[in-house]
Amino acid sequence: MQQHERPSGRRPAPAHPSRRPRLRLALATAAAVALTGTLLSATAGPATAADGTHAPRADFNGDGRADVLAGSYENDGNGAVLYLPSNGTKITATGSRTVSPSASGVSTTGYPNFGANFAD
Known about the structure:
The chain is an alpha+beta fold. The chain has 1 helix and 5 strands; from the N terminus they run αβββββ.
């Protein structure tokens, strides 16, 4: 059996395309937001909320619809990030995820109210 070498620097294409890598990216981004308080260029552009304020739009699960990523200071001040997908007409809890430092294996010992920094 003859083996073919692939060109260096190129990854083989996945056997079955999947949105799982994008969801993992979204959850990793959520964890980074929870830990740093910053969303690094993951936004696509402004959207107008019902009250007239602007909110960034981003498609975290790859379905072509803008999703929401929100930080909070819950869990005794340790913080969490909530991911809420869109169904095309509204934001929905179906498929939502919550990421917190403890769920990510990050200790918050010595940092009281760590998550309060991400509530705004």
